[in-house]
Design a protein that fits this description.
Elements (H helix, E strand, L loop, with lengths): L1 E5 L4 H12 L3 E6 L12 E5 L5 H7 L5 E4 L7 H15 L3 E7 L9 H16 L2 E7 L10 H7 L1 E2 L13 H13 L6 E5 L7 H12 L4 E2 L4 H8 L5 H17 L5 H7 L10 H12 L5 H4 L3
Parallel strand pairs: 1-2, 1-4, 2-3, 4-5, 5-6, 6-8, 7-9
Helix pairs in contact: 1-6, 3-4, 7-11, 8-9
This protein binds NADP nicotinamide-adenine-dinucleotide phosphate.
The site of NADP nicotinamide-adenine-dinucleotide phosphate has 26 residues, from helix 1, strand 2 and strand 5.
């Protein structure tokens, strides 16, 4: 099967590519950069394309049976997603799997949530078979906080006190691979959620135990978080994410029992747990001091 992965050089998409290649699928990765093609696994090839240039999407979709779509965060995310849906439909793609957000419908005032709702609506209206993967907050978001955790002793992601069923992107990728390679997942939406409810303090405590020294939760003040984030993120994204963290702080993003049952339909194993993720991450950050975790795949 010819499968196009849009976002295949990114966090979730690169794991999806690995999983599809391992199953012997013909994988095509859309990228804006020819340089990245050198790093693609054997069995995957690159297609140069840009979501801002719809004509490149029409070219990329030729001969493609299935598509996995990640829409990157952008002020024009809706237009980019709609362009992919139109190009896939035009090319006769049989099934498109889209990465969205858990409970996206509960906060349509958050710009990147609203974009995803519009893209999901376009998929429903397209007549094409689709699956929506509704993912909770990624464990791997923590990777950008290495300096803050190790040097300042602070866990800064302001996820609040109520808690989220955060999830490992490798579990998301495994579910995406299942939906792309098995039948029966068409026209379904699947939650992708981890087993534990984690508050900001819980996360800080797990880093404290793993590192053997205190890591403090940075707290719920979004102006403080936003002030620091403006050094690395564009202003529109800081505003967007502040709204999202305010939503997380107000009501959390906890999973229901019914959603665990639903998730089991695309899950091939138990969800990875956060303690293990932190162990592996800390071992990768400080390999000499955490050899026992470094062995964990
Ligand atoms: N972080 C979370 O907790 C979380 C939770 C739920 C859902 N999500 C959603 O996950 C998505 C992000 O996934 P991710 O973290 O895996 O992405 P990512 O690592 O940021 O990767 C972005 C990908 O998009 C591609 N890209 C960017 N601009 C492009 C353009 N103009 N044309 C073509 N390709 C372009 C990049 O490819 P090249 O650079 O190679 O061109 C790259 O492969 C967002 O939609 C977010 O809302 C995130």
């Amino acid at each position: 099967m010819n499968i196009l992965v849009i976002g295949g050089t990114g966090l979730v998409g690169s794991h999806v590519v690995k999983g599809l290649v391992a199953k012997g699928e013909q994988v095509h990765i859309l990228t804006r950069s020819a340089d990245k093609a050198d790093g693609f696994p054997l069995g995957a090839s690159g297609i140069i394309g840009d979501l801002h240039k719809p004509e490149t999407l029409r070219w990329a979709m030729r001969g493609i049976d299935r598509v996995f779509l990640v829409t990157p965060l952008s002020p024009t995310e809706t237009e980019e997603g709609l362009a992919v849906v139109a190009a896939a439909n035009h090319a006769g793609v049989r099934h498109l799997v889209y990465l969205s957000i858990y409970h996206v419908e509960q906060a349509p005032y958050i710009p990147h949530f609203k974009s995803k709702m519009k893209i999901q609506r376009a998929l429903r209206d397209s007549g094409m078979a689709f699956t929506v993967i509704m993912a909770n907050n990624f464990f791997q978001n923590d990777l950008v906080y290495r300096e803050s955790i190790l040097k300042e002793g602070i866990y800064p992601q302001p996820i609040g006190d109520i808690g989220l069923n955060r999830v490992d992107v490798r579990d998301i990728a495994d579910a995406v691979v299942a939906t792309l390679t098995q039948t029966g997942h068409e026209f379904h939406c699947y939650p992708l959620i981890g087993a534990e409810v984690l508050s900001g303090q819980d996360v800080a405590d797990i880093y404290t135990r793993t590192l053997g020294r205190e890591i403090r939760y940075g707290g719920n003040d979004l102006d403080i978080w936003g002030g620091k984030a403006t050094h690395t993120l564009p202003g529109w994204l800081v505003q967007d994410l502040k709204l999202m963290y305010e939503f997380f702080q107000r009501q959390g993003l906890r999973a229901s029992e019914a959603d665990f049952v639903l998730q089991a339909k695309v899950r091939c194993h138990l969800p990875r747990n956060f303690h293990m993720f932190v162990g592996e991450t800390v071992a990768a950050w400080m390999p000499d001091e955490h050899r026992e975790y470094a062995k964990v795949g």
